[in-house]
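To the team - uridine-5'-diphosphate-glucuronic acid complex, inputs and output below.
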Amino acid sequence: MKISVIGCGYLGAVHAASMAELGHEVVGIDVNPHRIDSLQRSIAPFHEPGFDALLLKNSSRLTFTTEMSAAADATVHFVAVGTPQSADGSADMTYVNSAIEGLLPCLSDGDLVVGKSTVPIGTAERLSEQVQPTGAVLMWNPEFLREGFAVEDTLSPDRLVYGVPAGDDGDSATAILDEVYSEIIAKGTPRLVMNFATAELVKVAANSFLATKISFINAMAEIADVTGANVTQLADAIGYDTRIGRRFLNAGIGFGGGCLPKDIRGFVARAEELGVGDALSFLKDVDDINGRRRTRVAEVLTEELGDLAGKTIAVWGISFKPDSDDIRDSPALDIAESLARAGATVVSADPEGWKPAQARIEQSGLSDSLTTTADHRAAAAGADALVVATEWKVFQGENAETIGELMSGNLVVDGRNCLDAESWKAAGFRYRGMGRA
Ligand code: UGA
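Output:
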């Protein structure tokens, strides 16, 4: 089947290569010529495990271009452009709207347009009306991939969700998308067909639930900090209840990235527009709890070191999560910046995130007090304190004694509760976790 994918960011680029892996002929389209140039040469423009190999393996079925007209050869068109946060918290629909407008002249009778972007509820209905006069049909097929596992999640998703228009069009659209995903469906992947509003809601509800789970355990960390309880043991104990589950109960400096923070804010904004803002007022607490996690590290450092001005602090982690170079709304980078603003000299280390962070640091005017490196040991050298802000395996596996010898001070603040506290204490460190007395 001939497929076009509009938008080649984390979602679209991986989707395009994955569709080629399923045997389809795919063209990826994006307005960013640098990104397209890199993809065209089978070089991933961002760090995502397994993605380079996937691009290379499928290069004969995969092309990338900035020309929207290339979509005219395809019969299935995935829309995977970003929906960043607007100033008022709502989702910015500029890219989705312009992708659809650009696509309209390329559509033919019987084509299928498949929305994958995360959008405010009601968008699919509106876009469906726009697409209808061309004879094409629109479906909504939200994506649940996690960065760091994007290839695996695209090719082996937990479920497929199809939002379909009412009537016969729904059946024909479902049949076409079944053909696209036939290999995935053949593996027994659950496939759920529903109306547009439900499909749109599934996506934001899933991300809101995950964000709530993280903020719940971080709220417990706040309680643990004043009561002497240990939030990791608490999470283990409640997580054994299969109704609760242990996953996404890791307390620490909270969630970031290009999805959870902006999606819960966009959901709240849309609910307010729909006159049901009260239904989601709890998500504002979820967001507030998450925001407080970012100040907690500075509080702990100040408790231990006093005034941070003039102190040297190593921060391990820049990306919002391990196995990614994505620094969008990264708690790790936010914390490093706030420590630099407090007068500390900060060296941030990250195997991948160090590079994209440089431009942002220059823009923020902090480059005199905040520098980045790929070498976490070099960052620790001479530091009064070490903060672990992203749980890369290479940090977790580090030898505490070696790091102790490199540093001037002996304080480690484990912002992700990911270190073996006992071995760091045994190496002479003062260990402070998050909600871990
Ligand atoms: C999230 C969802 O997990 C995906 O299902 C969804 O498709 C995606 O957003 C999206 O909407 O595109 P992602 O942003 O890649 O995926 O990252 P997550 O693995 O969800 O982690 C988000 C943040 O939560 C990270 O900063 C992570 O460090 C933090 N987190 C995660 C915690 O603080 N504690 C946990 O227990 C788990």
